[in-house]
Amino acid sequence: MSGAPSIRSNGYYKAKRAASNAAIHLFLIGVALTCLYPLLWMVSSSLKTPSAIFADISLIPHPAHFENYIHAWRSGGFGRYFLNSIFYTVSVVVGILVVASLAAYAFSRFRFRGRTVLFIVFMAAMMIPIPGNFVALFVLLNKLHLRNTPLGYILCMINVGLPMSLFLLKTFFDMMPRELEDAARIDGCSKIGMWRHVALPLARPVLAVVVVFNALNVWNEYLLALIVFDDKNLMPLQRALMVFRGEFLTHYPLLMAGLTITALPIIIVYLLMHKHIVKGVTAVFG
Amino acid sequence: MALTLQNILAFLLALACDREIRMKNFYCLIFFIPVVLSEIVVGMTARFLINDFDGANVVNRMLGSLGVSHLAHPWLSDPRTALTTVALVHCWKGFGWGFLIFLAGLQTIPRELYEAARVDGAGAWETFRKITLPLIMPVMGLVAILTVLGTMQIFALIIGLVGGEFAGHTSVPVLRILASMQGSSRFGYACAQGITFGMVLIAVSFFQYRLSARAKV
């Protein structure tokens, strides 16, 4: 008598729990589907013919036209834009790594006049977003004859990524124990040597965060690419996509193939480096 | 603009993912994908899905197959709905950010508090209201301001979606500045606009800095 209600309520709670779990899963799966659907759609329509793309809205293309990619890569010029984007991304990330790690190390370890002021100036630059100052940047680049050159774009993008990277790295170096460097100094290591052989290897996790974030940022950047480049041969993918759409408005499969070419590296990098991205977000905002 | 909807969605999702459920990592993985995609890619794909005259009109066809075809609408070419559509797409792209930050915030709440509340006989709703909500408030402020900052700077998405200013209905600060720079090459005016806009952004982020500094104490 006394046991019966408790058994029933136990079963009741279990059922209720299972129901609420199912509801949560349903909700999450629904949102996940809406996240994936447009992407699947983009890929599938890049494999269709221009006429099928409007007539057939199913996700599986039939038959699949992989030659769309070859067309987009060759005659659409996406091969060249792709290489441009890779070149800009790699140069900017390398530039940021060198400058930010050296500067962060110096800010963290050396005492020199104006250290705090200089660091604050760097951080203040972080507060000024590109949309607020790109007009001045445009004029400056023009005067330096750096507009419409890869160098101008790369320098600007290094500048964009620098403050955040500097901040992350300095925070890390500040927490790093000094004993290791003392040991290195006793062994006759120079300051550059300490940076190279002690600080950098230890900072590898932070460097990974810096690399991932800056790479994503450069790859996806549009505003600066818009004001810097006029020459089609120099444009990165994002900018080229807009030009392509302007010229071949109706050729949707090629455009979709271009979009897929643009999105794919980012998705691959993201899937591989997901852990670092989460860590980065938590480090900056947590 | 997209602020409320986006953050409510992000918060609900984070709350759901905060529990011990299966495939948690999988959901986290998926929800952040729209964030890492570029605005141009998202804008163009969305335009193609939504638009009727130069797109595949998938959204309207779906509405039709759900039996609510009277809701079908030229979403992007109607001036009244263009901005809302842009906001919705922006929301789709951006909620992953909020989700991730909320999740990080929720996971810092010590489990002991929940257990203590359960021992004291608090129900699920009460636990949520008395423990989760107060502890997550600072994070909410942070996410809200980050969303405001992000939303004020959108423009590539609009270029991808609508192709530019749509008779003033989808004009945002950055597009305005660009228009006065390239369209009429009034550099001084564009620069002044830029500085004003920059000041607004700096004010907002300063506010955010104060808020997050207080949250850490």
Briefly characterize the structure.
Chain A has 286 residues and is mainly alpha-helical. Chain A has 13 helices and no strands.
Describe the structure.
The complex is a heterodimer of chains A (286) and B (217). Chain A is mainly α. Chain A contains 13 helices and no strands. In chain A, helix 5 (115-127) packs across helix 7 (150-175), helix 7 runs antiparallel to helix 10 (204-220) and helix 8 (179-186) runs antiparallel to helix 9 (191-202). The longest helix of chain A has 43 residues, at 3-45. Chain A starts with a helix and ends with a helix. Mean pLDDT of chain A is 82; it is low at 1-7. Chain B is mostly helical and 217 residues long. Chain B contains 11 helices and no strands. In chain B, helix 1 runs parallel beside helix 6 (79-107), helix 6 packs across helix 8 and helix 8 (124-152) packs antiparallel against helix 11 (187-216). Chain B is flat. The chains are: A mainly alpha (286), B mainly alpha (217). The interface between A and B is large, with 59 and 67 residues.
Number of domains of chain A: 2
Provide the low-confidence segments of chain B as ranges.
Answer: none
What is the CATH homologous superfamily assignment of the largest domain in chain A?
MetI-like
First-last Cα distance of chain B:
31 Å
Strand-residue proportion of chain B: under 5%
- Please state the second-level CATH architecture of the largest domain in chain A: Orthogonal Bundle
The main sheet of chain B comes to: none
CATH first level of the largest domain in chain A: Mainly Alpha
Radius of gyration of chain B: 21 Å
Residue-averaged pLDDT of chain B, rounded? 73
Our count of domains of chain B comes out at: 1
